[in-house]
Amino acid sequence: MASLSSRRDTDFSLWTGFTASVKRDLLVAARHKSELANPLVFFLIAITLIPLGVSPEKSVLTLLAPGILWVMALLATLLSLDGLFRADYEDGSLEQMLISPQSLYFTVMAKVLVHWLVSGLPVAILAPLLGLMLSLPASGYWALFLSLLLGTASMSLIGAVGAALTVSLRKGGLLLSLIVMPLYIPVLIFGASAVGSAVQGSVIGMQLAVLGAFLALAMVLAPIAAMGALRIGANG
Fold first, then answer.
1. How does it sit in the membrane (predicted)?
2. Whole-model pTM?
């Protein structure tokens, strides 16, 4: 009975710490509304300019829409990654997180969740609306939303590793992009393929299953890698 009670207390403590970290990071994000809006503004402007720079022809835009939407969503998510741990590093909070009795794994997961909520999720919601500007057929909207829902979560997790590796660098944005971009390519390929298949009327279960597998793998491995990178970065 004592061991069961102790386990319950531990689980409660982990959950309490996780929710406290999420609430704190959401509050910090809400105080920096300009940084919060940057990915969405970039996504909106980039998609708006595509028809002007490529072609306004509906047939051309329909063909290119899945790839364009996914590439721009990837870049929009990447835009906000550099600040994932930087503020905590600069104000000394990161050192407190490293020595805190609270599990660093759940702290990292909380930060990744908040990053996805304020960047990836809004992009996934906005993407089908912007698909109208690229003449994306209605059959591709649901696939676009679902694929981005899974893909942006994976990109936030993978990006956390790159952000942790470059947290101590003053201008690590370029290096961060070089680190995470090769890891984003499989997600991009299967995400755009899912939308393209949906537009053509094909089944997209395989692509979504692969994206789900990427997400499950990233949820297990990415926080562990980010934890090690943060310890190295804090000491550096």
1. Multi-pass membrane protein
2. 0.86
